[in-house]
Each structure stands twice: as structure tokens, then as C-alpha cells.
Amino acid sequence: MSPRSDSGRSAAITRAGACAPWVRTRLRTAPGAACALGLLVLLTAFLAAAFPRAVEAYENKGLRHDLAVEDPRRSVLELAAPPPALGDEAKREAAVRGAALGAVHRKVLAGLPEPVRADASQSSYGIHTTEPIAAGEKWLPRPYGLDPALTYATPSDLPAHATLRDGAWPTVHGEVTAAATEVEAAVTEATAKALRLKVGSTIAVPTRGERPLTVRITGIIAPKLPKAAYWSSERLLRTPSLVAKPSRDTPRYYWIAALLLPPDAAPALLATTGVPEPYWRIAPDADRLTALDVDRLRSRVASLESGPELLKLRALAGPAATLTTDLDGVLTGYDAMRSAISPVVTVAAVGIGAVAAVVLLMTGGLLAARRRSELALLRSRGGSLRGIGGRLFAETAVTTVPAAALGLLLAVAAVGRVRLWPAVVGAAAVAVLVCVALPLGTTLGHRIPQLHGARDDMMTARPSRRRTVAELTLLVLAVGAVAALRRRGTAADGGSDFLVSAAPVLVGLIAALVLARLYPLPLRLASRSVARLRGAVGFLSLARAGRASASGAPALLALLVALTTAAFGGSVLAGVAGARDDAAVLATGADARISGEGDAIELPDRLVRDVRKAGGVREVAPVQIEYSVPLPSSGLGSDMKATLVGVDPGTYARLARATGLGPFPADRLKATGAAPGKGTLPSKDRVLPVLASPSVAERLGERPRAIKSLAGDFKVRVVGTVTRTPAVDNADFLVVDAASLTHRQTTTLLVTGGSADAKALRAATHRAGPTFFLQLRSEERAAFVDTPMQSGAERIYTAAIAAGAGYALLAVLLSLLQTAPERTALLARLRTMGLTPRQGRRLLGLEAMPQALLAAIGGLLVGWATIALLAPGVDLVQLALSSGPGSDTLDTAPLRADLWSLALPALGVVALAAAVAAVQAWWAGRRGSITELRAGDTR
């Protein structure tokens, strides 16, 4: 070779300006591989960018939802000040008129510190009497002979928040002063109905002067938004209430209601005995609040209550003004839920992130394996590692960067109105991982010349000391993460502990390493058994499976981590659903529950008969419930009371067994001896066996103890303890055979039947009277409506299951594609020796099955083991039961294994492996064998 050609070749290799032609040439040569890589990067970048945006979006929506649905009496900021001091009467009257209070209101709203923002449309101001004033008019209703008490208020902008139903809006005639003798007022429809008020009615209000103030009703109004802050921050403005008068005897009730005066009639209230007080109610505006504002918002609210911001308010409203609100309590509750949900979501994020990273690295490994000969040739002709790496980087970046950018744009379009930079970081991390890992991993394999022919399979590979040390280190980390999660849960001080959140990933990783070490053993045993059989297909397939490259371990790792993550996500969703089912059962005790007020009213016999005849009713358990039964004193502690539950042992035992709430043998409650007749006293020597809650059983002890109740006086002996029982949801109870009670009556019906006719049950309850109520378990279950934060977390776990299953299938596909050329060449050679197409399909299928079955069975077992290991440390109460009838009935809600999320991805792995093998055998049979039988081919 001439020196000229050598110099030209060296210049061609080292010339830096050749990057663009190289990239263009490579993309034209292998467009399919570039598109596949770009599609994978796009999907992964979309998930990486969408996850932080989805989390921030549901946290923001959760905050706004909590503030929107919270009782305005808690969320509204109320600024109050005492009335102007005695002195110049004209100044006092001017200070409480609408114009003066409105000016202060506007200044207060304008001076609120960020991020405290006011909803001006629902904020209000005025003056109201803080002490109700008794009304002596004879025509007013007096349910218990007590005079009704009225309060008087001058809410601002009343016509904008109410609709006039009758009469006219109250106005002032001339200038109203403290000496006024008559003013006009309006009342809501509910107040007018309860107190028998109508247009033209008058109320005499006592004053400090000689003449009373006459309040004339001129209008009946209806609130436009009765649940909004304007009306609900003080519900008395729209709805009257019966209030119990404090007494040691039977409580007596009286009406309390509010009359609404025009703002300029406020001076007339200064002369009343109701202790009038100016107020400014500030409804918070949550439309622009985000989760990042919570800490600042809490700090500003605290400052408004007792800090520098309160001093600013006092400069506007008066030196003695005070601001009260429970908004900080609402924010604390929101923080508690977010702190409980975030670590659980982080577990899903870490799992899917690990799987995606492994699959991306597997893709890079596949591309590098396909180009090993090409790059080895470049190295042999003088190419430097830096030059080859640079060209590979440029080639990868051309595909990866636009794909990652497109994934980012799709994520931004899918989840809007949140911060951008977390999504940018996620998408950039994916792009950097691919652009760096693929060129780096490919070039490092060509640092030294490699000779062809050395076997690198899982059957002959011997783990090095470094690998052993690394595996032991991972084992220690996995054990530590699992132990920490079981001991203190997923939450950590100040946020999430990523080592704890990575526990499922570490468990899957350890399982993959263990299975990789154990994989050769069953293959060797199977090969020895198959070798003695007739036919070469079985032996050859197992031999091929045993000679699989040791580099296939990443596929096994990706499969196990993906299947573990999918199983964990399914267990979270199953745990949430199970906890809600349990809470609904605890709320009703059966499929349906019929009872009177306080479970104290005897149910009529007709109601019992109608319920038994209703369609779909399988069984009815009559129950007698008596609350607050005093227990015998133990001499060591204070008095203790329990709930007495009288049941029919047979039906109640079947109910307890069906619901899982304290099952027990029916014969355990049957008393010995003759039962007392109806209305007769039991024998003093008669002892009734009872089931008791643990606390009651501890109080009663083992010997018979006397019980006095409305159902009779008798002695009891505890024959068993149960922590729950269907009839009641409290922790202190006694269950006794109702037939042994002296005064027997049915106060509650517990109905079982999954398809019970709800209309028939409701009609029977309605016919019995207005004092009886029906509760359906299905309705109680439906009452658990997801908040935005709960539904957002559940959607993320649903996506985690889908992504885990998808990445698992992709890992199988990549693993099979990596060895596809070898299998194609093998089929071509074996066809020349007489291999039939059917035998070819069997060969490829049996070759793919060992690793697929290993991954599927291993993933199934590891997923189940991970749930069993981590269940004690993962509590889903906040995620499942933040709202609903049983929000406080469950102490814990653990993970629950979900068969579908365990089995379906594993079956999908096996099915995909079989399908790919069949398709490859079919495709290889359609192609000629000439290209596969080239001389010198190393496959």
C-alpha cells in the first residue's frame, strides 16, 4: 500500500468535520433502529416529564378542593372589632354605617399579604349583635315554652346574594340613628317558615332607652348560593336552629334565628342589648393557590392572627380588632394527607424509573451488539475511542434529543398549569442517559481487541469476586430498606426516604441476581433428562437456552423489577378498595341496616315482616341495642360503660362470619337452664354467657358479674372476646342472647343479601314512620368519593401497573431481538439437515421458554413476597379513607395482594416470548437460507 493511500486513510479517520456525513449515512442505513430508539425515548421522556407535573397538579387541585369544600366557618377569616367608644354620638353612628365599613373592607382586602387572597364576591362586612335577644311576641313558636332568640345583622350587598320571593327589599327612610324607633328587615324563607314570619310582621327589640326598636319584616328572600361563604360563614343568617337550654334535667329547646337589616340601619343596633359588633368576613380565594404556597400561607395566616400583619389590620379596623380563623387547621389536614400519600407515590416512581433505565440500557446494549463487528473493524483500522465515541454520541443525539423534546411537549400539553422545570429535568435526564450510556457502553467494549469464539453464557460463567461483593452490598441495602420500611413506614422526616422508597426495586434486584445464579441448575438437570429421550429438538433447545449470553441478566432484572412494581401498584389499589369495603361494612354491619333514632326505638312488627318479604333479602338478624350500660366497678379505675347487644345467636353468628366482623360459634351464646318468661325477672343464680370486646372482658374478669340495664338485671360471664361486631362500631360492647333478656325488643335489623331490593326496603321503612332510617352498604361505599389528591395518586398507580407491564414486555422483546440473528442462522443450518418448519417452531419456542418461565414465575413469587414484606410498613388509610362515613373507623389499611396485577403481566411475558418465537420461525421459513449460510459468518 502506498504512503499516499495510508495518509489519506488516516486523514479520513481523524478528520473532525466528518461527523455530519457519518450521522446522515448511519440514519439512512438503519432508519428502523433509529425510529425505534426515538420512539422508546419519546415514551420514557413523556413519563419522566409527566410524573412530576401530574403529582404537582393533583397536589394543587387537592389544596383548592379542600379549601372549596371546607365549611366556611373554618376557612373564612373573620375580622371583628368592638363598637366605637362612647363619646360623640354622630361619629359612632357614622363609623358603623355601610360606607365607613365598606371603606375599611376595601383597604383590608387590598392589604392582605401574599399568598392570602380574598374572594371579593363572597366576602362581606357589616354589624351584628353577638348576643341573641329574646322576642316576646306571643305569636312566635315556642316548642318547649321558651321565647325564641333573635340576632340582627346588616350584611353588605344583600340583593346580589339573594332573590326576593315576597315583599320588598328593606331600606332606610332618611338617616337612621341610635335613637331610631323603627327599621326594616328581611328574612330567608327557612326563617320565615320556622318562626311564622310574613311580610308586615313586627318584632319589638328592647333597647337601653325607654322605647323599644320596632323591626318590620318587608321581604322574604332566598339565598342564591346557600352553601357559599357569604351565607355559610354564619349559618344563622339563612337557617334558623333549635338550641338546647343548658339544664341538668331533660333538655328544653328554643328557636334562634337572624333578621337582616340594610347596611345604613346599623346605628339603630347600637342602642340594643345585643352587644353589636362590626365584622369583616374574608372568604379565601383558592383558584391560584399551589401546594408550594402552603407553608407561606400558614405563616401569613398566623401573622394575621397574632403578628405584624394583625397590627396593620388594627390600624384600619381599630386598636382592639381581632382576626379569627381555622384556615391553618385546614392547611394542617392537607399537609397530613400529602405527607401520607407522597411517599407511597414515590415508591411507584422509583420502581418505574428503575425499570425504564434498565430497558434503555438494554436497548443500547442491543444496538451495540448489532454493531460490534463494524466498530471492531474501525478500531482495527486506526479509529480512536474518542473519535468513535463522538460519532456515536452525535448519531444518538440526533435521534434522542428531538424525541425527548417531543415527549416533554406532550407531557406539558397533557398536564398544564404547573411548573415547567421539573418536567424539563425529567426529560433531560432521559436524553442524557441515552446519549451518554449508549456511546460510552459501546466504546468501552472496544478498549482492547477481542477474539471471537470465547463462550460467554450463563451455564459456564463464574461470578467474579467483584460481582460477589457488589451483590452482597445490594443485599445489605435491600435488607436495610425493607427493615426500615417495616419499622417506620414510607414517610421520613421532612419528606420521602429514597432508600426506603427503593425497597421494591432492591428486592427485585436481589431476586434477579439470585435467579441468575440458580438458573443453570435446573437447566443442567433438564438437559440430562432430555438427553436420554429420542429426538434432538428438546435437547438442542435446552442446550441453546443454556448457552444464552450472560449479558441477558439485565433483561431478567428489568422483568423482575417491572413485575414487582406492577404487583406493588396493584396491591396499593387493592388495599384502597379493600379498606373502603371494610369501612362501609363497619358503618352498616350488613348489606342493609334499619333502625330508629339512636338505635333506641322499638321497631314495629309490620316493619320486620315487610323487610323479610322484600326481594333479594337472604336473612334478617334482629338486634336489640342499649348504649351506656354501666359495668361493675373494678375498684381500680373510673366508671366504665359499654353497649349491650342482644342477638339471635344463629343468625347473628352467620352474619358475623359473612362480614368477617368478630365471627364466633353460635352455641357459645346459648345459656343453660330455662329462659325467663316475657316480663318476668330472671333467677338470681342465672348466669348469661357473653362475648365481649377486649376492654370489657378485662374489666369483667373471669367470674360472673352483675349487670343492670333497661333490658333487665342479670349476671354475665365472658366466654369469648372479639374486637369487632356487626351491630355497633364502638370499642366497648357486650353480645348476649336476646332470648335471655327480661325486656326484649328489636331496635335494629341487619339485612344480608347482595341483591336486596333497595326500593322495597326504603318503602317499608317509610311506611313505619319518619323516626326510622335505612342504611345501605352500597351507598356507604359510594360515599367514599375520591378527592383530587386521592384520585391523582390512584391514577399514578394505575399508570405504574400499565408502565411496569409494558416495560416488562419490552424487555422480553429486546432480549429476544438481541439473539434473533443467531436463531435465524441456526434455523437455516438445521433446515439443510432436514429440520421441518414444525420442528423449527418447537425449537425456538422451547429455547425461549426457560428464561420466560424463570422471569414469569420469579416475578410472580417476588411480587407476592414483596407485598408480604412491605405490607406492615405501608399504611393506606389517608389514601383510602380521607372522607366518607367510616373515615375514623379503621386504624390501618395495609397492602393487599391483587391476583390480576400479579398474574397478568407474568402471563403476558410467557405469551409474548412464545409469540415472538413463533413469528420468528415463520419469518425465517419464508426467507431463503443463502444469506444465513455465508462462509466465515461468526453467528
Explain the overall architecture.
This protein is α+β, with helices and mostly antiparallel strands. It is built from 31 helices and 23 strands. The strands form 5 sheets. It has a 9-stranded mixed beta sheet with strand order 19-20-18-21-17-16-22-15-23. The chain has a 4-stranded antiparallel beta sheet with strand order 2-11-1-12. It has a 4-stranded mixed beta sheet with strand order 3-4-10-9, with helices on one face. A hairpin with a 6-residue loop joins β9 (241-245) and β10 (252-260). It is flat and about 120 Å long. It starts with a helix and ends in a 13-residue tail after the last helix. Mean pLDDT is 82; it is low at 1-20.
User: What is the typical, i.e. mean, pLDDT?
Assistant: 82
Rg (C-alpha, Å): 39 Å
Strand content: 5-15%
Find the structural class using helix and strand composition: alpha+beta
Distance between the termini: 32 Å
Shape: flat
Helix content: 40-55%
User: Order of strands side by side in the largest beta sheet?
Assistant: 19-20-18-21-17-16-22-15-23
Q: Helical stretch count?
A: 31
Number of strands: 23
What low-confidence regions span 5 or more consecutive residues with pLDDT below 50?
1-20
For the sheet with most strands, the description reads:
9 strands, mixed
